[in-house]
Predict the 3D structure of the following.
Amino acid sequence: MSVSGYKICNVKRRQDNNQSMNLFTSGQGVPCGQFTCAEFAGCTNGECICSAGYVGSGRFLCVPVGQCGCVSFGDPHTRQFDNGRTRTVLPCQFNLAGFISATGCDIQVETVTKLRNNPQFPFRIFNRELLVTASRDNTVVTFTLGPGGQSTPVVAAIPGVLDAIPGLLDIVVTSSQFNGFYRATLTPCDTVIAFDPSLMAATVSTVPTTIFTNEGFCANCDGNPTNDNAFLAVPGVTQAEADFGLSLRQLTNNQGTPDGVECTNLRLIANTTACMVDAFLVNAIRCCSVYYDSTYAGCLLTNAVSPLTRAQLLGTFKNCMLQYCLNNIPAAAGIPAAFVPTGCTLPVGYVCPS
């Protein structure tokens, strides 16, 4: 779909909750330095800022005050519905957002991530594509937003479920494009989902009357950012540890990445009896995350004696987590001994909590 000028369709659909979602055609935002601002954002001192009456990230998504917008971009970092922050860890498939709209649409958005080809940050990942499932009454719609744009929505009936409104197509997906974002407006679900393959950025917007079920990284939209990541309530936890914990909790049942087997195993490990306790899982992360996305892991990756691959390091992290979550903590604590010949030094103060 080509992009031709800034054009807004002055079309609004009145919702049952007296709120509305705007529908837009292709367009282009305000240039701002090396970036282009989102709709309803202006450029101030080289920074994209949401206009008065709108909130969000001026570079990616601005929504009217009172609505809910979530943005995931970069490594990826996620700016949650309530403005909390989290960073996704591990090259896996995750729940990004999950909710039921006031109009009865059950929305599930998953992000499939991919390792960056960046030697400076060998463990960082990005959003490769979004998998969207929306159901209402007896109809389910599935589509993908990814490098090739938006796939053709597949509409199917749910076996054995009666349509509350016979003969009416329950969900219509309206495609548009803005600033490189491929957008899908789900009518009548009060929801817009978008993906920019060049920026590896994803956005989800909805209204606050939504019931947040499988919350994902975007969390809920109750105006309280302190409950968007339960791991932040663990005494003494760092932001990085809380992010790692949330990533493990949001692993999906079906994994579609090259490391899908290890990701599936990590989901099962994080859901063992001991590690279902957040504080215990944080201790496991403190013991094991040193093997992934750390200076020590970087040394294990590049040392001249016995360099490991990223896949091997992910497997080492998984094995450590398995031992710890099975309460075999001495075995987890003993893993570094195998890497002494590499000459890599564990971080100062590293301990495997017992």
Remarks:
- The radius of gyration is 22 Å.
- The chain has two domains: 12-218, 230-342.
